[in-house]
Amino acid sequence: MIETHQNLIKLYILHMKECDPKKCSGLRLGKSGFARIITRPSHLPKGTTILDPFAVKAFSPADKRDIERRGLTAVDCSWNQLEGELKVKMKGKHRCMPLLIAGNPINYGSIGKLSTVEAFSGALFIIGEETLADQILSKFKWGHTFLDLNRRSLLEYQKAEDSTQMIQIQTRLFQEMGFKR
Predict the structure, then answer these.
(1) Which residue segment(s) compose the domain that 157 sits in?
(2) How far is Cα 122 from Cα 63, in angstroms, rounded to an integer?
(3) Using one digit for the tens of pLDDT, what is the confidence trace for 46-103?
(4) pTM of the predicted model, to two decimals?
(5) 104 assigned to some structural domain
(6) Residue 181, in any domain of the structure
(7) What is the tally of structural domains in the chain?
């Protein structure tokens, strides 16, 4: 649990034990005290916002109040084992991250294949917690790369009022960068 400004932002990691523990950004965050590791979905706090790549609703600055109250959860699992949905059902407010470019060494340059720390950092940046977003990335020698690759997009995403605007901004940004949907 990390104190930022006058608020407490609680970060939770649902660790699915699917990745190499030596390369796991989620475990490293937990060990450094930035997040609480949880191994069973039933142990997640009630009402937490869950970063879910298959959620219907996009994460946006409108989620900030809920995160300040109930916390933010990232699911730490292997991208190679995902097949269009998370295999575990979890209670909470599911949100997908807007498109961002991975800066981690395993998925560098891939759109959307974020490590756990990148997902947290992106979400925190979007809700205006830029200092905390930078702090958690500072634990990784490649961490600054994520913000370098995505700063423009993250600053634009901060302007969204809700999920619908987030998708509009995302579409515009990626069209400007030459990506097609």
Answers:
(1) 2-176
(2) 13
(3) 889 999 888 889 999 999 999 999 999 988 765 544 454 455 567 789 999 999 999 9
(4) 0.86
(5) yes
(6) no
(7) 1
